[in-house]
């Protein structure tokens, strides 16, 4: 297996993202790699009526602040689940999760591997490979690992 120095892990609060974190922790420990734990706060407001939802507008500054605080709390919860002595950095960013996880953040942190859960919190995502995971696999130039629950 290729030796990775930096592994980027996309976390969204879903069961699959917890599985991704566990797998990332195992790999980081075995390779002495650094983890970059990332939660992307989507800046677009999703309005759904039982389906995948429609993007209708950007979130207000107040809404973004609330979502960022929630993301920070979630990351704090995830950090305690890492194996001892694993080096990590926890980051909350605002933007499009697909673009951030496939292009922007791997480049910024010089990640050699991106790990994401197979599906996210969206109900439609649970029936097929999640749209974010599928986008990352198709569009990143970085090695990718998609983890199921």
From TrEMBL:
Its main location: cytoplasm. It is found in: Cytoplasm. It comes from the Bacteria. Gene3D superfamilies: HUPs. It holds the Pfam family Usp. The keyword Transmembrane does not apply. One of its GO terms (cellular component) is cytoplasm. The keyword Chloroplast does not apply. Keywords: Cytoplasm. Belongs to the universal stress protein A family. This is Universal stress protein. It comes from Ligilactobacillus murinus.
């Amino acid at each position: 297996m290729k030796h990775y120095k930096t592994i980027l892990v996309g976390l969204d609060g879903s069961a699959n993202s917890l599985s991704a974190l566990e797998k990332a922790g195992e790999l980081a420990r075995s390779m002495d790699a650094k983890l970059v734990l990332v939660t992307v706060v989507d800046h677009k407001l999703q309005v759904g009526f039982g389906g995948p939802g429609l993007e209708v507008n950007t979130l207000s500054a107040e809404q973004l602040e609330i979502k960022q605080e929630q993301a920070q709390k979630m990351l704090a919860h995830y950090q305690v689940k890492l194996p001892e002595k694993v080096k990590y950095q926890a980051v909350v960013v605002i933007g499009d999760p697909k673009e951030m996880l496939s292009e922007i953040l791997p480049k910024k942190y010089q990640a050699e591997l991106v790990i994401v859960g197979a599906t996210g919190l969206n109900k439609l995502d649970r029936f097929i490979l999640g749209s974010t995971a599928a986008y990352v696999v198709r569009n990143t130039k970085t090695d990718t690992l998609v983890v199921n629950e």
